[in-house]
Amino acid sequence: MANNSRTRRPNTVTAFVEDGTSKYAMEAVDYDTAVATFLYDCTVKNLSSFTVKYYRNSLKELVKYLLIAKAERPIDVTEALLKTAIMAKLNSGVKDTTVNTNLKGWRTFFRFLNERSFLPTNPAEHVELLRTERRIIPAFTTDQVKALLKAADQQSFTGFRDYTTVQLLIETGIRICELEGLKVTDIYWKERVIKVFGKGRKERFVPFQATLEKQMKKYVAIRGPLDHDFLFVNIDNSAIKRRTVQENIQKLGIAAGIKGVRVSPHTFRHTFAKFYIMNGGDAFSLQKMLGHTTVEMVQTYVSLFGADIAKQHRKFSPLEHLHDDDND
């Protein structure tokens, strides 16, 4: 009887090199080849250019460290070396969340090499993400949002565009990379939803309401017909880039005198989630609108913003109610 539990061989033919009495794939003995093969696979899977760039940058940092540590081939990498690399990053002052961002890329890389039989084992198999402290999520107050909107010069095209951008970010909570790729054809006016292409090229529909609809219709009319469909454009009619959006929002923050919170597109994403939860929205629909694959981040929003803590404290303060029974 055939043994059906055998591991299937990869359906690829790769170059091998002699190393003593053993033969290894080039991916096992050369970092450049290993990284190139991995990134090619990412491209074939149609991962976004931003995801491929993220993997390339995180692996560049790792390889640099491994070569310094005398692990000159991928097959020489051990679990202990990877953990040492993590500690080196932490000791250099890198935030734990940033280390985890890099570590996710490293783990995916070595899992790929192992699953494709380029490496006999996966040195990152038991390397876990760092436990991170739950930090206060920065978000704008209602007054700060109003101040940012007021700071935009609606008498100029760029100011009117930035005013519309701020309204869109606070209404939908979309990522800056998603905003950058928006097209006029992605707006479904009748249904009041915007088609967004998120991480991993995943498509989702995000709703909006009458106030944003009115503003976007004005902006689209001012934008006028162009030879491309990108929604947000520069004064020369070229599609706006994320860096420009970031810089323009920072300028609005300076003009509005915003202090104590970073004025960035991502802060609008947190602010959207904060207001949505505080106004009674549920975690499931929030997860769908934000495009999160897991509920972890959404649960953080719920735990932080699920109730107006100050209002609840005024209502149920132990000290304020300490003598309630004295009048009985």
From TrEMBL:
Keywords from the UniProt entry: DNA recombination, DNA-binding
Entry superkingdom: Bacteria
Domain Core-binding (CB): 29-114
Record-annotated Tyr recombinase domain positions: 135-314
Database matches in SUPFAM superfamilies: DNA breaking-rejoining enzymes
Keyword DNA-binding appears in the UniProt entry: yes
Keyword flag DNA-binding: yes
Cross-referenced InterPro entries: CB (IPR044068), DNA_brk_join_enz (IPR011010), Integrase-like_cat_sf (IPR013762), Integrase_catalytic (IPR002104), Integrase_recombinase_N (IPR010998), Tyrosine_recombinase_XerCD (IPR050090)
Matching PANTHER family: INTEGRASE_RECOMBINASE PROTEIN MJ0367-RELATED, PHAGE INTEGRASE-RELATED
Family membership noted in the UniProt record: Belongs to the 'phage' integrase family.
UniProt-recorded name of the protein: Tyrosine-type recombinase/integrase
Species per Swiss-Prot/TrEMBL record: Paenibacillus agricola
Native organism taxonomy: Bacteria, Bacillati, Bacillota, Bacilli, Bacillales
